[in-house]
């Protein structure tokens, strides 16, 4: 099988490493929710989709699935003002919510979503992110489950994009082009 193209981003986290870590995360989440009837998994669109699908296939705890979508004002991710583009359909009152995100960067997106889920009366809200870029954090967010902590690089693949490209790469790669818009 050769799906590789000459301009593919260089590999930061391989397919195997991703899959191994995702299985470990699912085991951890199952252990922590042994007493819970059901988790409501809320994926943050669109970046979390690949991660969510793989993670939830390994989870033994019963789950309901919903999605949430935000966008930041301005073109970058650093304006700090987060707008809701798609809300969850399910009621979260009394539910054990597992927020699933691709990457925590400045933290503004997750801070906003976490506050909202709590305000809605969720019994618990836990955050599971595939990637964490701790060095670019601007607001504090408590991460309960983290796949990989990475340097301050712009990464693509496995759901993450640059201008909607590269989401379907099966690994996490480093985008070396100019990301400033
Ligand atoms: P935050 O609000 O700054 O934490 O930004 C979170 C969002 O910015 C993520 O959900 C991604 O959609 C996007 N983002 C941040 N860093 C990267 C990256 O390295 N590659 C692709 N998208 C990123
Ligand atoms: Mg995202």
Overview in brief:
With 181 residues, this protein is an alpha/beta fold. The protein has helices at 15-32, 49-58, 108-119; strands spanning 10-13, 39-45, 63-72, 82-86, 96-104, 124-132, 145-149, 155-156, 172-174.
Structure characterization notes:
This protein is α/β, with parallel strands linked by helices. The chain has one domain: Rossmann fold (3-Layer(aba) Sandwich). The chain is 22% helix and 30% strand. The chain is built from 3 helices and 9 strands; from the N terminus they run βαβαβββαββββ. The chain has helices spanning 15-32, 49-58, 108-119; strands at 10-13, 39-45, 63-72, 82-86, 96-104, 124-132, 145-149, 155-156, 172-174. Inosinic acid (IMP) is lined by residues 47, 77, 101-109, 154-156, 160.
Please give the structural blueprint.
Layout: E1 10-13, H1 15-32, E2 39-45, H2 49-58, E3 63-72, E4 82-86, E5 96-104, H3 108-119, E6 124-132, E7 145-149, E8 155-156, E9 172-174
Helix pairs in contact: 1-2
The structure holds inosinic acid and magnesium ion (MG).
Residues 44, 47, 102 line the site of magnesium ion (MG).
Bound heterogens, unique: inosinic acid, magnesium ion
Alpha-carbon distance between the termini?
35 Å
DSSP strand (E) fraction?
Answer: 25-35%
Q: Biggest sheet, open or closed, and with what strands and sense?
A: 6 strands, mixed
- Which strand order does the major sheet show? 4-3-2-5-6-7
Structural class call reads: alpha/beta
Give the total of domains: 1
CATH topology: Rossmann fold
Helix content: 10-25%
- H/E series, N to C? EHEHEEEHEEEE
The CATH architecture designation is 3-Layer(aba) Sandwich
| Unreliable segments of 5+ consecutive residues | none
CATH C-level category: Alpha Beta
């Amino acid at each position: 099988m050769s799906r590789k193209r000459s301009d593919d981003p260089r590999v930061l986290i391989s397919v195997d490493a991703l899959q191994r870590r995702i299985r470990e995360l699912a085991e951890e989440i199952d252990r922590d929710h042994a007493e819970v009837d059901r988790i409501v998994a809320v994926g943050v669109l669109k970046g979390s989709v690949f991660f969510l699908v793989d993670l939830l296939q390994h989870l033994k705890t019963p789950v309901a699935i919903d999605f949430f979508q935000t966008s930041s004002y301005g073109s970058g991710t650093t304006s700090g003002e987060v707008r809701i583009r798609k809300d969850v359909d399910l009621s979260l009152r009394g539910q054990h919510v597992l927020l699933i995100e691709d990457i925590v960067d400045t933290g503004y997106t997750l801070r906003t979503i976490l506050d909202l889920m709590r305000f809605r009366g969720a019994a618990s809200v836990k955050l599971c992110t595939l990637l964490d870029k701790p060095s670019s954090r601007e607001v504090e967010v408590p991460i309960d489950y983290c796949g990989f902590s990475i340097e301050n690089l712009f990464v693509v693949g496995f759901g993450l994009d640059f201008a909607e490209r590269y989401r379907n790469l099966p690994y996490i790669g480093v985008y070396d082009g100019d990301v400033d818009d």
